[in-house]
Amino acid sequence: MLATKPSERLSMFTRALENNPQENVTTTTNIKMRVQNLNFYYGTFRAIADVTMDIPENRITAIIGSSGCGKSTLLRTLNRMGELVAHTRTQGTVLLDGENIYDRNMDVVLVRRRVGMVFQRPNPFPKPIFDNVAYGPRLLGVRGQELEQIVEQSLRDAALWDEVKDKLHESGLALSGGQQQRLCVARAIAIKPEVILMDEPCAALDPIATYKIEELMLTLRSAYTIVIVTHNMQQAARVSDFTAFMNMNPQRAGVLVEFGPTKQIFTNPTKPETEDYITGRFG
What we know:
The chain is α/β, with parallel strands linked by helices. The chain has a single domain (6-279), classed as 3-Layer(aba) Sandwich (Rossmann fold). It has 11 helices and 10 strands. The strands form 2 sheets. A 6-stranded mixed sheet has the order 6-7-8-3-9-10, with helices on both faces. A 4-stranded antiparallel sheet has the order 2-1-4-5, with helices on one face. A hairpin with a 5-residue loop joins strand 9 (242-248) and strand 10 (254-261). The mean pLDDT is 92.
């Protein structure tokens, strides 16, 4: 249970920040994705309004905020997953290495290959562990020894190889929840994305499995740009380099209140709404 006093909550976040092995966060960090004046609509309802933010390369960016403020919606705009829902539309720009992923000539399949996603609940295919990881590379035409090498390396990178190397032909559904989530990470990185989106990846996991996923994120950061949505602010403090705080405006649309280095957001926010949310005075 979270502490109720603002001073106690700040103390908890300070301890979490102390345990975060953040790399040197500077203003010169390369920008991998740039979101500009982004709006997303479900029918006539505007779910997120005029969001502008930069996502640094090879860093972990956490998106926090109360339920319903558009965190997951924003995440899904970063690889056009929102388009899979009927009667939706997007306005604004999302640049990936300077290219607008919403350009009419942009290949959506290529976008989702470059920007992979791991969902809240583990969703392995009802297939053997090997076939789960091999699924994407096979679609790309990879076969034989190269495929075996990709599967092994992906499972190693997801910190799962030692646990499953002797049962690759057993169902992925037979794994524990935490192992299934790491299998989903292995499946995502098998096609070598540049960005990994994680929508509350630890929400359905126990503390030990959560710790392993957090350790995995910190390891993967050197090779991938990671964006994570989380309700767990201690998790955001533990693993992220940058944090975006979202809230709802009077029209119930999600807006970006503040974005910055995680340490600054949690210890010296510039907006009173951010401080109120972090200290528990929000709402």
